[in-house]
């Protein structure tokens, strides 16, 4: 498999009609910093505009899919004036992934948490390793989900169950996520082998008809996704100013249980 694009944070490989985008910060469990977010958006746009590619795989290097947004760089070091730009980059990445005229599949191993979980939900098919853990855990640091998660979770679970999952914020094993409809398949054996089986099934299908169905639904839903992303951007800015968020960050750094006061 030839490597076509490599940076410090994102790798792109293409083999035949399949492109694989790999998040490449294994030392931080592929936590998403600004460079990775911008790199992913750029690579996704390139792939989206390449006619020879029909299928896109999203995966993480090392032990995890993605542990979510990089708290140190995104929440502690970023200037407040930079925050809207960071959210805009996240939103661009998610819209590009959701809307691209390709079939997309997430190969999830280890952690898929927070923004990392949002990315997986934005793909057409989520294939998870049996030992993986998935969590919409923004609530633990006094934030709301972003990356379009309100949109994706409501479409998969309905409004009531989406709210409960967001408010609980607890990790789920792959089988539980499968039962809830958040994962499409749990690999019985090796994740890579299960991925190849799925890819071959798709490659032997009328892919253009599948992509057309995706495009019709994505075009219909895109205005709502854009609205949700804008509401998440505004809501997240408000949550970042709360005492509970500061307490959540302090507790995370100090590795203790947070004490929230609803402030």
Describe the protein.
With 263 residues, the protein is α/β, with parallel strands linked by helices. The protein has one domain (2-189): 2-enoyl-CoA Hydratase, Chain A, domain 1 (Alpha-Beta Complex). The protein is built from ten helices and ten strands. It has helices at residues 34-48, 71-77, 83-99, 115-121, 149-157, 159-168, 174-180, 191-203, 207-239, 243-254, and strands spanning 2-6, 10-15, 18-23, 55-60, 103-108, 111-113, 125-128, 133-135, 172-173, 185-186. The chain starts with a strand and ends in a 9-residue tail after the last helix.
Q: What key phrases describe this protein's structure?
A:
single chain; 263 residues; alpha/beta; 2-enoyl-CoA Hydratase, Chain A, domain 1; seven-stranded mixed sheet; three-stranded mixed sheet; 16% strand; globular
Q: What's the mean pLDDT score?
A: 94
- One letter per element, helices H and strands E, the order comes to EEEHEHHEEHEEHHEHEHHH
Number of helices: 10
Indicate the low-confidence ranges by residue numbers: none
CATH superfamily: 2-enoyl-CoA Hydratase, Chain A, domain 1
Shape: globular
Strand order of the largest sheet: 1-2-3-4-5-7-10
Rounded Rg: 18 Å
- Biggest sheet character: 7 strands, mixed
User: What is the structural class?
Assistant: alpha/beta
Share in β-strands: 15-25%
CATH topology: 2-enoyl-CoA Hydratase, Chain A, domain 1
Q: What's the number of extended β-strand segments? A: 10
- What fraction, in percent, of the residue positions are helical? 40-55%
Terminal Cα separation, in Å? 52 Å
CATH architectural arrangement: Alpha-Beta Complex
How many domains? The number is 1
